[in-house]
Amino acid sequence: MQYNFNKTLFIEKLKSSCSKTHVRNFKKGETITTYIEKRNQICFVLKGEADLIRYDLNGNKTIIGHFTLGDVFGEVFYPANTNNELFVEAKKNAEILFLLYDDIQEKCKKGCQFHEELKESLSDIILEKVIELNTRIELLTKRNTRDKLLSYFDILSSNRMNKTITIPFSYTDLADYLSVDRSAMTRELSHLIEDGFIKKYGNKITLLY
Amino acid sequence: MQYNFNKTLFIEKLKSSCSKTHVRNFKKGETITTYIEKRNQICFVLKGEADLIRYDLNGNKTIIGHFTLGDVFGEVFYPANTNNELFVEAKKNAEILFLLYDDIQEKCKKGCQFHEELKESLSDIILEKVIELNTRIELLTKRNTRDKLLSYFDILSSNRMNKTITIPFSYTDLADYLSVDRSAMTRELSHLIEDGFIKKYGNKITLLY
DNA sequence: GTAAAACTGTTGCATATGCAACAGAAAAAA
DNA sequence: TTTTTTCTGTTGCATATGCAACAGTTTTAC
């Protein structure tokens, strides 16, 4: 966002000109990829939405990441020795472009005309990912549910530059994203309404402060 | 770690050959930088250790990140519209190399012999940052203090490939890093000992599972 | 060396959060 | 359409966590 770099244009170019990529479509609910074996795969969302999900031993679901148009995910972003089973699931019919980090750095070099440009853009793309993750960490380090909710609303609100926001999740999923219990979160939402911090109409929230 | 890229060598080269960088020494406790105004600064730890810290309105301290030799931090990794005041503090006498992301991408291009190599390495460096942040998110999404502690110990243990680990923090700071109350964490540590999960000798912990 | 400051382990108490269960609403599937 | 599934809001209860306070220890500063 903050760097003058046209990501959409970039992805279009990538799709049409790099021989090392491939594109696949997924239906809602399908598993796009699992992070078990360590490949250095990078994936771009061309259409639709996807969630990066972890289930722990107690069956708790955590939405580690939520990806939409232009977002990037993949095993290359995770440590090799992760003992968590993560997988990415299509939330809506989705079109995903796959390629390997190594192919960008090495193999593609000879044939692909677009290659130099890709390499230049790569650090910008990964940098954007870093910013996304730091934003998420800001959220997760908040000590209680109220602060997590307010932080989340603030982020959406300042992104859209609007005091009224639309939650891009079901409330069930939002709880999994904030890493809190759903019923406790709903309870806290009620408190926020009582205390005059927010108004709530379905999946729309208006910040009153 | 996982890419065959020599970071130490890289930093040495960077320090000696790029005219756009500068290096400064800090004493323990000194503030290295604050993330208020938005510059696209990148900083490398050449010596010592540093913490990225946030204080919330209630005075709670959170250690957002902990950096040692070779680690990278800086405003460039944060969204422009962050309303949190973050700052980086030297934990031990530290030597820090500063440069601007824009200088790598643009201005340095003409004069600096090392520039091309720097650009190639840049995406590897930022990628390493992404992996570090995803590891941190795995930790923070754990639902309770016990799981956070065990995850943290696991990460240290598998990095050092040793069942006995040395906590690189004071326990006070570890609590701030895990985003939990110190006394609650100490209590949970006692429970982990009682339940036979760990043994504890000062700042050394042995995993018994 | 001595004084001051920070760290550690512990506890009682208040409360936020998790958990289980339920019914009505909404959405998806048939 | 009808049926099935998922989502939502709520509540009672158990408990994990936060908070405040304290004393003993260790570390830093003078």
Explain briefly what this protein structure is.
Two copies of one chain form a homodimer. Chain A is of the alpha+beta class and 209 residues long. Chain A has helices at 7-17, 101-105, 115-140, 145-160, 171-178, 182-194; strands spanning 22-26, 31-34, 41-47, 50-55, 61-67, 72-73, 86-90, 94-100, 164-166, 198-201, 204-207.
Characterization of this structure:
2 copies of one chain form a homodimer. Chain A folds into 2 domains: 134 residues, Sandwich (Jelly Rolls); 63 residues, Arc Repressor Mutant, subunit A (Orthogonal Bundle). The first copy, chain A, contains 6 helices and 11 strands. In chain A, strand 10 and strand 11 form a beta hairpin. The longest helix of chain A is centred in the middle third of the chain and has 26 residues. The first copy, chain A, is globular and about 60 Å long. The mean pLDDT of chain A is 86. Chains A and B meet through helix 3 and helix 4 of A and helix 3 and helix 4 of B. The structure holds a DNA duplex (30 and 30 nucleotides).
Features:
DNA-binding, 209 residues, 4-stranded antiparallel β-sheet, Arc Repressor Mutant, subunit A, Jelly Rolls, homodimer, alpha+beta, 11 strands
Helix-strand blueprint:
The structure is a homodimer of 209-residue chains.
Chain A: H1 7-17, E1 22-26, E2 31-34, E3 41-47, E4 50-55, E5 61-67, E6 72-73, E7 86-90, E8 94-100, H2 101-105, H3 115-140, H4 145-160, E9 164-166, H5 171-178, H6 182-194, E10 198-201, E11 204-207
Antiparallel strand pairs in A: 1-8, 2-7, 3-6, 3-8, 4-5, 4-7, 9-11, 10-11
Chain A binds a DNA duplex (30 and 30 nucleotides) through residues 143-146, 170-172, 180-190.
